[in-house]
Amino acid sequence: MSTFSTSDSATPIVVVEADASVRSRLAMQLGERAVPLESLDGVEERFTSPFLLVLGPSCSLVPGATGAEDMLARRSDIGAILIAENLSTEVFQRAMRSGMRDVLGAPVDTGQLNEAVRRVSQTLASPARGATAGTPIPSLDGEEPKAPGRVITVFSTKGGAGKSVLASNLGVLLAQRAEGTVALVDADLQFGDIAVMLKLAPQHTIVDAVGSYDRLDQGFLESLLATHQPSGLKVLPAPLEPAFADQIGAEQMNTIIGLLRTFCDYVVVDTPAYFNDVVLGLIEESDDVLLVAGMDIPNIKNVKIG
Asked: What's the pTM value of the predicted model, to 2 decimals?
């Protein structure tokens, strides 16, 4: 049996799909790097890390998400993308739990598929500009490496549950009582209210960080943060207009969070009350996720499936 190693010039893309015609089409869309397979059997033994895994629509029908959960739990060096016929909330939730890096709708456009592969491939091919959980941050003065900051994401499956109130109060409380720097990121990109709730008149928002993405570093990001004077909390506000939300993708958001980890001890993230690529990426990068719910039956039902 042939094997693929990390010394290959290009990271292999393993395409798994039971339907032969769909499998062939996906392989053609991905080009010569694609290795089409009917099932996941023997994939770990055949491919050494890192590699990309594209799971076709038939995989999303397997009970317990995709059938790849165990492998992805063991291997953090696999970048997995799921293609699903029905992009429902349930599918996004199952994909998130099983370790998917991205979820695309079927039939998938060639450009969209290759863009997703490019994004996921970048996370495997080179270290992130920011830090991730458990990765010590090098010290330049000979001291012990600084542990990356803890990311706490606040999420709710329904609006009006008090999610933003909890996120802002948690940020203020940590800034007042915890040692070190605390940042609060408003990732409700269309209708974020954190700046209003904290009575801030920010000069910059997260749009400025994304607009200067190519030169984004610690110093520049720090200059964009507003300060809540009573507590010292650092705040990265949401865009001022909903239209700007389209400019911010999951990759940019995760880079910003990773960079904040390098100089903040806590990063609290407020999110919108629905799943999208940005929210899924944030939850994946978080150390803790606080799920906020009301006591009414619909709210409890949504929390249960969330």
From this structure: 0.56
